[in-house]
Amino acid sequence: MKEMSPLKFLMILLASTCAIFLAIAIYVMWVTSSNMPSLAQLENPKQNVATRIYTADNELLDMYYIERRVPLTYNGIPKDFVNALISTEDRKFWRHWGIHVGRVFNSIVKNIFTSRREGASTITMQLARNLYLNFDQTMERKVREAVTAVQIEKTYTKEEILELYTNTVNFGRGAYGLAVAAKVYFNKEPKELTTAECAYLVGCLKKPEFYNRKENYNDAVERRNLVLKLMYDEGYLNTSQYLRAIEEPLEFATSKSSPTILGGSSRLGIAPHFVEMMRQELTNHPRLKEYDLYRDGLTIYTTIDSRIQKLLNQALEEFMPEIQTTFNQNWSWKGRNDILQKLLKRAINMRTDYRAAKDNQKSAIMTRLLNDQRFVDSVKNAVTTVQVGVVIMNPSTGAVLAMAGASPKFMRENPDAKYSLNHAYQIRRQPGSAFKPFVYASSLIKGLTPDSRIACGPFSYTLSSGEVWSPRGSGCNEGETTVTLTTGLARSINTVAARLITQVTSPRDVIDLANKMGIQSPLAAVPALSLGGGGEVSPYEMTSAFCTFANNGWHVSPYFFESIETNTGEVLLSTKNNRNITDVFDKEIAQQMTYMMMQVVNAGTASRVRQYLKDVDAAGKTGTTNNSTDAWFIGYTPQLVCGIWMGFDYNEINFDCLGAVGYGGRTAAPLWGKIMSLIYSDPQIPYKQKKFIFNPIDSLSQQINWKPYNLTNTQRNAGEVNVLDNNSTPANGSEPHKSRDDSPILAPLPRDEE
Known about the structure:
Layout: H1 6-31, H2 39-43, E1 51-54, E2 60-64, E3 68-69, H3 79-89, H4 101-113, H5 123-132, H6 139-155, H7 158-168, E4 175-176, H8 178-186, H9 195-204, H10 208-211, H11 217-233, H12 239-247, H13 272-283, E5 299-302, H14 306-330, H15 337-349, H16 352-356, H17 359-370, H18 373-383, E6 387-393, E7 400-404, H19 408-413, H20 436-446, E8 453-455, E9 461-462, E10 468-469, E11 482-484, H21 485-491, H22 494-504, H23 507-517, H24 539-550, E12 554-556, E13 561-565, E14 571-574, E15 581-583, H25 587-603, E16 619-624, E17 630-636, E18 641-647, H26 668-681, H27 713-718, E19 737-738
Parallel strand pairs: 1-5, 3-4, 9-19
Antiparallel strand pairs: 1-2, 5-13, 6-7, 6-18, 8-11, 9-10, 12-15, 13-14, 16-17, 17-18
Helix pairs in contact: 3-9, 3-11, 5-6, 5-7, 9-11, 11-12, 14-26, 15-17, 15-18, 20-22, 20-25, 21-25
C-alpha cells in the first residue's frame, strides 16, 4: 500500500479541520438563529422585582413578589462579596470577554477523560442563563449561553455585569438578589455583612436549597470556609483576616428578627391580613393599572406602626388562649349533633376533591368523610376556634396603625391564613349595643343633654305593620323610674335606647348620622336599629365611625398607605392631600359623648378595661348580640381608637354557653384594655396624651353640678328636656307608642348587656 505523502496528509488535515470548524459555525448559527435575546432585551433585561412594603416607622413589613428581589447598585455591594464571588466562580472575570477559553477546554478534557463533571461557565455566562435562558442541560443552551455572554460583555461594563448578577441570582429561601438574601439570612443591610457572611452567601449559590437548612449547618460552614480559603489564595484576604473569618460562627436571623415576619411569631409576618387587604384594594386601582405589584418593584409606604402592631400581636397571643380555654371547657357537642352534621357537610362541600368529583362519586366521598374521625375532629377544631378582628386608627388623620384579622391559633394552624377571611375588614356582623352611641349622639343633637332624664322601665312600640316591638332589657334599679342619658349608656339599658330612637330622634336620622361618621354598610330604618339590630357592619367601619367622637366631631376617612412609588422614585399615588374630611357635629356633642362613654369604661359595662388600663382616660361602648354570637368593644383614648370584634365563623357556634362571661364587656373589653395598656407603657410609641381635654366655659365656677363639657345652642335653647313615660305600656296600661316609621321590618333583638 502506497504511503500518504506528508503534503497530502496536511491537506486532508486542514480540510478536515476546516470542515469541522465550518460545521461548528453552521451549528452555532443554527442554534443562535432562534431563542436568543434581542438587542432591546440585552439593553433592558426584564427582571421580576419585588414590591416592598414599609411601615410608617420605616421597617420592611412585607413584599409582593414572584421572585423576592430588590435591586442593588454596584456601590451598594460589599467589596468582600465581589471578591468572594470572583474567587469562587470566575477568577479571570476582569480579564476575559465573557468566555474563559482555557477553562472551557480544561472542562471538556475532564468531562471526557474523568468521571468528574466540571462546569466552565463564567459569571457572565451564568448571568446570561439567569436573565434570558433556562437551565436545560443541553448543548444548544450552552451555545446560546456563550454567545449571549459575549453580547453582554459588549453591552455592559464589568461593574454593571456584577450588579446585574448580584441582583438576579437565587440564594434560596425565596431570596433573589443580595439585598433580600442579606435580610433573610442575617437581617442586615448588604453593607453590614461581615466577610464570613459574604463568603457564606457566595457559597450558597452552588446549592441554595441545601446550604440554607439548619440541619446542614456543618456543611454550610465547610462550604463558607472553602470560599474564604479561595479568597485568601487570590490575595483578597491576609492571614489575620482569613483566620478571624473562619472562626466566626454563622448566626442566622431568628424568626423574631427576620424581615419577612418583622418580629412576628410565624412565617406570615406581623400584619398578614393588612398586607393582603391592601393588595386586594390596590390590584384594581386605576392609577396602578399599568403596573404589576408582583414584578415592577414598587415601594409602598403604609400607615402601619410596627411597634403598635407588635404590641397588638403580643396582646392577642397572651389573651386569646384564656378565652379559647374557657370556651372549650364550657362547650359541648352533646345535644348538638344536628349542628355538627350541618357544619361537617358544609366543610365537605367546600373541599376541592368533592367539588371536582363526578355526581355519582360525591355520595361516597361524603359518607367516607362523615365517618373519618380525623376529619370530624379537624372540623370541630376549626369551627370552635374563637376568632377576633382588631383595628387601631389615629382619629385625627384616619391612618390605620395596626390590624389583626384572625386569632393567633387560627394563624398557626392554617398555612394559607394570610388569605383567609379578614375579621377586622371583611366580616359584617350585627353590632349589638355598640351601635347605641349613634342613637345617643343623634339625641344630643336634637337638644337632650347627658343629664336629661329618661324613663328606664319596660317599653313597647307599635310598628306601622301592627307588630308590637317590646325590647327586653330595662335597667331601672329598685325604686328607679328614670335615669340620665349618661347612666342609660353606661348601663347599656335597651329600653332607654328604644325610647330615644322613637321619641327623640328617628331611625332615619340615626342612619344619616352614622353614614356621615363612616358607616357604609346598608342599614334598615327600624326602631331595633337602636340596639344594633338594623343591619350588619364591619369592625373597620365601626372603628372609623368612633374616630368622629375622638376627633371632636370631624370624620376623616380611613386610609392605609401614605404613598406608592416606582422603582425610580416617581410618586404614583399619595394620600397627603387627598383625604375626605367631614364636619359631622359640633365639638360640644363630641365631648359630651366622650364624657358619657367614659362612664361606660369607669363604672359601666366596660369596667373590666380598668383591670389593665389604670391611668389613661378611655371611652367606648360594648356590644353583645343574640345568643352571644358577637362580642364587641369599640373604644378610644385621647389619641387612639381601637375596635374589637370577637366570635366565630359560623353563627351556630357562639358564646352562649359561657353566660355573662361571653358578653362584650367580659371578652372584647378586657382585651382592649390589655392592648392599650401595652401601647401606653411603651416609651418608644409617640402617643403620650393620657387625658381628654375638655374646655368648659364655666370651668372656673364653683357650681355644684359642674360638668366637663359645654352645651350647644340647640341644647341651651331647649332647656331641661326629659323623656318620661306619660302614656307608655305596660307601666300604665295604655296603648303602645305608634310608629312614625313606615318600614314593616322587625329586626332581631340584640342580647341585653350584663
